[in-house]
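Continuing the batch. This is chain 6 of the set; chains 1 through 5 are on the previous pages. Same settings as before, nothing changed between runs. Recording input and output for traceability.
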Amino acid sequence: MTAGCINLANYKVISFDKIPSTQTYAHNMIADGRGADHIAVLADAQSAGRGRYKRTWISHHGNLYVSFVYTCEERDARLAYSVGVAIAETLISFGVVPTIKWPNDILIDGKKVSGTLIEYSGRFVIVGIGINIKTNPTVKASYSTTKLDNYTNVTRDELLNKLMRNLDKWRNAEFTDVRARWTELASGLNRTVKYRGEVVELIGINENGALVLRRGTEYLLVYGDEITMDTITS
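Output for chain 6:
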């Protein structure tokens, strides 16, 4: 574990060649009293990377693995959409055409290229982001992944620099603007998905960041629950 520290785009970047998890390292920094706004924990590779619901995030060399620490006094469901838009806009700046799968997975041609894990710790929020650049993992057959190298030529550092600037832009934007852009980029709107085993229609998000679903004539507001997007029908 070789550490380095630089300042980049208004962030203090702590970088490692390999650690178990950038997310866990950020949590430990906060627990030890070293947490601060605009810290980025970066790793060339992770031995125990994780995504939502404690799923393993395969973390080979060549991709972007980073966890951002921000001051955050209370939980905010809207943050996930700001992050999703920031990542998508970053890829767009390099000529890629992405879509967003609720709430903030990034897809290219229907295949996952980026995932996000948002966790709260004390008065901070940790935003972990993984983007496939050089490699993409092979997972279950029904779950397709891809990498940026299939679409554009970009280095990890170029991607990180642009991502930092977009995160600051969209985190500080009015949510009406975030919501509008997220809706433009979202996949699966006005189509059917599975929510808790039921088939419902995905309508969009409301002004508080809740997912709006329709079940017959009933509207459901969902915070944080998982919906199954791979069962979308035309």
